[in-house]
Structure formats: structure tokens, C-alpha cells
């Protein structure tokens, strides 16, 4: 994104949160890219290596296996799931993000859709074998973080999985940060809902300078 100013970004996010409109600002990030997915400041432009590693080590031998990518951004993770044989539904609340995905991958098999996690189509309930969540919760405030976790978990079918990737922090740290990384206690709340069982949990630092702590966890229903 041209002339990106992080302080202005934080100010914008806070202004929407104060109006109890925690997702109202998302589209502006993608719209300001002016059709160039490379200008979305938070896009890695490659699938998560932890997602790819999990897919390689855990092949799902099932016909018509379905995956859902939450807040799909510019589409890298959705495309990776598609390449592993999933019928992928990838959604974002931002129409501009979905437009970027469709233009970036004109021959994609992924179903890119504008949708709201808090009001998703009823037919998605318990539909997906794999649900992938990356960095959505951390940009939400307060009660919306709990609502997001519950909504995400409700997308998983019986014996399905949810993979959760997020920035992390220690309890009591960075309490006013935007985005607000998850604590261990917060991500552990996935184990308390919808009969989810933790299969794996990883805390790691990425390769940025300075390094940024992350969690990558896998739960099964």
C-alpha cells in the first residue's frame, strides 16, 4: 500500500472500535491497494509454511473434502488448500479483498466469497473438514474475539479440524496494542467449546527483525 502510515492505521482501527464497528475499516486496506495485491501491507504473498507442513503430514483421505479460509486476504492460504485437493471456500468481509483474489487467480478452483464471520451463510454450519484461521482474532476487540472463536469453531464438521495461526504475547503485555496478539490463555479457550481437542500447539518466533512471537495450534472436533 502506497505511503502506508502505521500510526494512522492504528488511529483508524481505534476509531471504528469506539463506534462498535470492529470490521468496518477492513475494506479500506484492500481498496487502497488500487488493484495491486502486493501493496496490501500485511500480506505475506505466500502460504503459511506451518499450514503447508500440516497438510503434508496429515493427508485427509476423504472424497469431496472441504476447507474454509477465514479472512482470506489475497488468497495464498486458500490456494494452498486447493492444491492439496480440498474444495475451498475462502471468504473475507472486504469486497476489495475478494476482487483482488479473483483477479490474482483467474483460473482458481477456490470459491472466493464476500461474507461476514458473524453472519455467515447458514449452510456453512458444521460443513468443513478443515477450517483455517490466520490473524483474524487479533484485529478484533473485546467480546468480538470470543464471538469470532465461537463462530469459527461452529464451521467445523464432526471429526474436522481448525488450524489457528496468530501473533502471541505474554499475559499482561501489550494490552493496548493494535493488532492485539493472543495470550496462551486466550488461544486455549478453543479447547473449551464445541468439543474441540487440542492435537498440537507450537509457540515460535518468525524471521522478522525484530522477531515476532506466534502461536500455531491445531484442534479437532
From TrEMBL:
It comes from the Bacteria. Keywords: Methyltransferase, Transferase. GO terms for molecular function: thiopurine S-methyltransferase activity. InterPro entries: Methyltransf_11, SAM-dependent_MTases_sf. GO terms for biological process: methylation. This is SAM-dependent methyltransferase. Pfam families: Methyltransf_11 (PF08241).
Amino acid at each position: 500500500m502506497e505511503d502506508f502510515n502505521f500510526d494512522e492505521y492504528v488511529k483508524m482501527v481505534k476509531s471504528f472500535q469506539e463506534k462498535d464497528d470492529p470490521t468496518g475499516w477492513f475494506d479500506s486496506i484492500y481498496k487502497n491497494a488500487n488493484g495491486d495485491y502486493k501493496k496490501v501491507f500485511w500480506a505475506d504473498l505466500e502460504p503459511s509454511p506451518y499450514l503447508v507442513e500440516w497438510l503434508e503430514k496429515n493427508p485427509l483421505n476423504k472424497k469431496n473434502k472441504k476447507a474454509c479460509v477465514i479472512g482470506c486476504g489475497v488468497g495464498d492460504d486458500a490456494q494452498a488448500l486447493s492444491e492439496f485437493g480440498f474444495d475451498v471456500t475462502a471468504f473475507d468481509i472486504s469486497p476489495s479483498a475478494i476482487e483482488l483474489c479473483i483477479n490474482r487467480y483467474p483460473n482458481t478452483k477456490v470459491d472466493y466469497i464476500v461474507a461476514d464471520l458473524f453472519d455467515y451463510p447458514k449452510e456453512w454450519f458444521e460443513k468443513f473438514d478443515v477450517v483455517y484461521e490466520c490473524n483474524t482474532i487479533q484485529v478484533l476487540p473485546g467480546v468480538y474475539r470470543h464471538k469470532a472463536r465461537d463462530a469459527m469453531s461452529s464451521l467445523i464438521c464432526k471429526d474436522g479440524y481448525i488450524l489457528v495461526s496468530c501473533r502471541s504475547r505474554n499475559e499482561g503485555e501489550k494490552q493496548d496494542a493494535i493488532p492485539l496478539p493472543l495470550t496462551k490463555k486466550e488461544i486455549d479457550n478453543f479447547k473449551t467449546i464445541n468439543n474441540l481437542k487440542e492435537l498440537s500447539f507450537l509457540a515460535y518466533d518468525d524471521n522478522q527483525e525484530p522477531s515476532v512471537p506466534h502461536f500455531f495450534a491445531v484442534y479437532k472436533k
